[in-house]
Specification:
InterPro entries (chain B): MetI-like, MetI-like_sf
Subcellular location (chain B): Cell membrane
Number of helices of chain A: 14
Family (chain B): Belongs to the binding-protein-dependent transport system permease family.
Order of helices and strands of chain A: HEEHHHHHHHHHHHHH
Helix content of chain B: over 70%
Structural class of chain B: mainly alpha
CATH class of one domain in chain A: Mainly Alpha
Oligomer: heterodimer
CATH architecture of one domain in chain B: Orthogonal Bundle
Order of helices and strands of chain B: HHHHHHHHHHHHHHHH
CATH topology of one domain in chain A: MetI-like fold
Main location (chain B): membrane
Pfam family, one (chain B): BPD_transp_1
Distance between the termini of chain A: 31 Å
CATH superfamily of one domain in chain B: MetI-like
CATH architecture of one domain in chain A: Orthogonal Bundle
Strand content of chain A: under 5%
Number of helices of chain B: 16
Low-confidence stretches of chain A: 148-153
Strand order of the largest sheet of chain A: 1-2
Chain lengths: 300, 315
C-alpha cells in the first residue's frame, strides 16, 4: 500500500514538473530567439568591425579595439556613462523610500482617497517613452516654469537648508535632501509604478494581522515596522530592480548607443558601448541586491 | 468629559497627522497635475494669448484651432485605431504568456527551473539597447531556424509589420516582459500553498487549479500587468521607431510631429515659423495622444485601486 502511495506521489510530482515545463515553453522559445542568440551576436559584434552594404555583412574580429575606442576616443561616452550612473545611484533610494511612504499613505482611509490614488498613478501613463522626451523640449512649459519660479520657492529651500545645517545635521545629508526637493517632479513622475506595486503588496496583507497587533497594543508606527515592512520586503527588492531598469528607457546612454548604431551605422562600437553600460549596471545591481535581499521575507 | 477628550494627546496627534497628510497629498497632486493642466490650457489658447502677460491659465481668446491642426497633422483617427489594435493585441498575448511562465516558476518547479528563472532575471537586467542590433538584423532576414527559406525560397523581412510585436509578445519576450513574469511569480509565491493544496485534494488538475484558483487570487497582478503593458506599448518609442518606420502609430506620429509641423509651416499658409506656435501644437498633440489612455485609466483604475482582499485562506 505504502509503495503504491509513493509511486503515485512521484508521478504526481512528475506531472507537475511536466506542466511546469509546458507553461514555461513559450517564454523559453522567446528567450532563446529574442534574447540569448541576439545577446551572443551582440557580444560578437562588440569584438569585431562590421561593414554592412547592399550585399550583406562582413564581420571581422578586431579584439578590444571597439571598447578602447568607446572609453578613450569617443568624446561623449565617458561623460554620459558617469552621468547616468550617478543619476541612478542618487535616484533609486529616493524613489523607493518615497514610493513606500506614499503607498502607506494612500492605503490609509481619508476623504478623497480614490481621487488621490488616481492622481498618483497618472505618471505611469504620462511619464513614459516619447511623451517624456517631447516634454523636455516643450517651449511653452519652459516659459511658464520661468514665470512660476519667482524667487519664493528657491529662497524657501535655501533657508530650510541653512536651518538644518545650523541645527547640527550632516551637510551631505542636507544636500541630498535639498537635491531631492529640487528633483521632486522627477521623483514623483518616476515612482508611479513603484507606488502601485507597494500598494498592491500592502493590500494582500491580511487585516487580521493588524487587528491582532492593535489588540496587543501596537502603535501604527510599530505595526508598520513589524507587519507592513516585512510583508512588502520582497517588493522592495522588486522596486529597486525596477527603478534601475526603468532608467534604461529614458537616459542619454540609451540615446547615445542607439544613435551610434542606427545613424552612424557603427554596429561594433555601439555594441561595445552597450556592453560596458550593461556591465556597469550589473555591478550596481549586484551590490544593491546583496544588501536588500538579506532583509527580504518570504511566505514560503 | 468632552473637554478632556478634546485636549487629549491622542486626538491632537490624529488631527495633526490628518493635516500633514492633506498638505502632502494636495501638494504632490499639484506637482503631478501641473503639466497636464498647463497642456490643456495651452491647447485651447489662441496664438495671441501666448504673448499676453495677463493670460496664465484661462485663455482670453478661446479656440480649437490647435486641436484641428494636431488632428490633421497626426492623422489622428487612423493612428488611434492602429495604436489601439497593436497595444491591445500585444497586451493580451503578453499577459497570457507571462502569467503561465510566472506560475510555473513559482509553483510548478522542475529540474533546472531555477536556472531558467535566472534567465528571466537576465532578460530584465540586460538593457534592450544591448540586443537591439542583432534582433533588428534577425527580423530583417527572418528565417525561423532556416524553415522559411526552405518553404518559400527566401527569408522574410518582418520589419515594418506588426509581426515583431506579435512574436515577441506571444513568447513573453516583448517590452519589459521579464518584469511581468517577475511580478506574477512574486504574487503566486505570496499566495499560501494551502489554497493550492486544497484544490489538488479536491481533485483539480494543474490546469484547472491555475485557471480557477490561482488566477482569481492574482487579480491585482493581472490588472497591473495588463495596464502596464498596454500603456508602455502605447507610449513606447524605442521599439516602434526601430521596427515600424512608416506605419502610423501614436508614438511614431508624436515623435515626428515637430518635423511634420515645421514642413507644413514652411510651405503652408503661415510662412514665418514661430517656435512658440510649434510648441503649442506639439503640446496639443501630446494631449491628444494621452487622452485615450487617461479615459481608459478612469475606467480601469477602480479595479486596481479598490482594495482587493485576499480570498481563500483568510476569507
Amino acid at each position: 500500500m505504502r509503495a503504491v502511495m509513493k509511486l503515485k506521489q512521484r508521478t504526481y510530482a512528475q506531472q507537475k514538473a511536466l506542466w511546469g515545463f509546458l507553461y514555461v515553453l513559450p517564454w523559453l522559445l522567446g528567450f532563446l530567439f529574442f534574447f540569448l542568440i541576439p545577446l551572443f551576436y551582440s557580444l560578437q559584434y562588440s569584438f569585431s568591425s562590421i561593414k554592412a552594404d547592399s550585399k550583406g555583412m562582413t564581420i571581422e574580429f578586431i579584439g578590444f579595439a571597439n571598447f578602447i575606442e568607446a572609453l578613450t576616443v569617443n568624446t561623449n561616452f565617458n561623460r554620459t556613462l558617469v552621468e547616468s550612473i550617478v543619476n541612478m545611484v542618487v535616484n533609486v533610494p529616493l524613489i523607493v523610500i518615497f514610493s513606500l511612504f506614499l503607498a502607506v499613505l494612500l492605503n490609509q482611509k481619508f476623504v478623497g482617497r480614490a481621487i488621490a490614488r488616481s492622481i498618483f498613478f497618472l505618471p505611469v501613463i504620462l511619464a513614459s517613452g516619447v511623451i517624456a522626451s517631447l516634454e523636455a523640449t516643450s517651449l511653452v512649459q519652459a516659459i511658464n516654469e520661468q514665470n512660476a519660479s519667482g524667487g519664493f520657492f528657491s529662497a524657501g529651500t535655501i533657508g530650510m537648508a541653512n536651518m538644518m545645517i545650523r541645527s547640527g545635521l550632516n551637510e551631505d545629508i542636507v544636500m541630498y535632501l535639498m537635491d531631492a526637493v529640487e528633483r521632486i517632479y522627477q521623483i514623483v513622475s518616476q515612482s508611479g509604478v513603484q507606488i502601485l506595486i507597494f500598494l498592491a503588496g500592502i493590500q494582500t496583507i491580511s487585516p487580521q494581522l493588524y487587528e491582532a497587533s492593535k489588540i496587543e497594543g501596537a502603535t501604527g508606527y510599530e505595526a508598520f515596522w513589524k507587519i507592513t515592512f516585512p510583508m512588502v520586503s520582497p517588493l522592495i527588492l522588486v522596486n529597486v530592480i525596477y527603478t534601475i531598469i526603468d532608467s534604461f528607457s529614458r537616459n542619454n546612454m540609451t540615446d547615445l548607443i542607439k544613435e551610434t548604431g542606427f545613424t552612424t551605422f557603427n554596429f561594433g562600437l555601439s555594441s561595445a558601448m552597450a556592453w560596458i553600460y550593461f556591465l556597469a549596471i550589473m555591478v550596481i545591481l549586484f551590490i544593491s541586491t546583496y544588501f536588500v535581499s538579506k532583509r527580504v521575507f518570504y511566505q514560503d | 468629559m468632552i473637554l478632556t477628550r478634546l485636549l487629549s494627546l491622542e486626538s491632537w496627534k490624529r488631527w495633526l497627522w490628518t493635516i500633514i497628510r492633506l498638505v502632502l497629498i494636495a501638494g504632490l497632486s499639484f506637482v503631478i497635475l501641473y503639466p497636464i493642466i498647463q497642456k490643456m490650457t495651452t491647447a485651447i489658447k489662441d496664438k495671441s494669448d501666448l504673448y499676453s502677460p495677463i493670460v496664465v491659465f484661462i485663455p482670453e481668446h478661446f479656440t480649437l484651432d490647435n486641436f484641428k491642426q494636431a488632428i490633421v497633422m497626426m492623422d489622428y483617427w487612423e493612428t488611434l485605431l492602429n495604436t489601439f489594435v497593436l497595444s491591445g493585441t500585444t497586451t493580451i498575448l503578453t499577459a497570457v504568456s507571462c502569467a503561465l511562465a510566472g506560475y510555473a516558476f513559482a509553483r510548478l518547479t522542475f529540474k533546472g527551473s531555477n536556472l531558467l528563472f535566472a534567465g528571466v532575471i537576465l532578460t530584465i537586467l540586460v538593457p534592450p539597447t544591448t540586443i537591439l542590433i542583432p534582433i533588428y538584423m534577425n527580423l530583417k532576414d527572418f528565417t525561423l531556424m532556416g524553415l522559411i527559406p526552405l518553404l518559400t525560397g527566401k527569408s522574410v523581412n518582418l520589419l515594418n509589420s506588426y509581426w515583431p510585436f506579435l512574436l515577441t509578445s506571444l513568447t513573453a519576450s516583448s517590452l519589459k516582459a521579464g518584469l511581468y513574469i517577475y511580478i506574477f511569480r512574486q504574487f503566486f509565491r505570496g499566495i499560501p500553498k494551502e489554497v493550492e493544496e486544497a484544490a489538488y485534494i479536491d481533485g483539480a488538475g494543474v490546469g484547472s487549479t491555475f485557471l480557477r484558483i490561482m488566477l482569481p487570487n492574482a487579480l491585482p497582478a493581472i490588472v497591473t500587468v495588463l495596464l502596464f503593458s498596454f500603456v508602455w506599448q502605447w507610449n513606447d518609442s524605442f521599439f516602434t521607431t526601430t521596427y515600424l518606420t512608416s506605419s502610423k502609430v501614436m508614438s511614431t506620429q508624436l515623435a515626428s510631429l515637430p518635423y511634420n509641423l515645421s514642413i507644413l509651416l514652411e510651405g503652408g499658409v503661415t510662412t514665418n515659423k514661430d517656435p512658440f506656435f510649434m510648441s503649442m501644437v506639439q503640446d496639443t498633440g501630446i494631449l491628444l495622444a494621452i487622452l485615450p489612455l487617461v479615459i481608459l485609466y478612469l475606467f480601469v483604475q477602480r479595479y486596481f485601486v479598490e482594495s482587493i482582499e485576499r480570498t481563500g485562506i483568510v476569507g
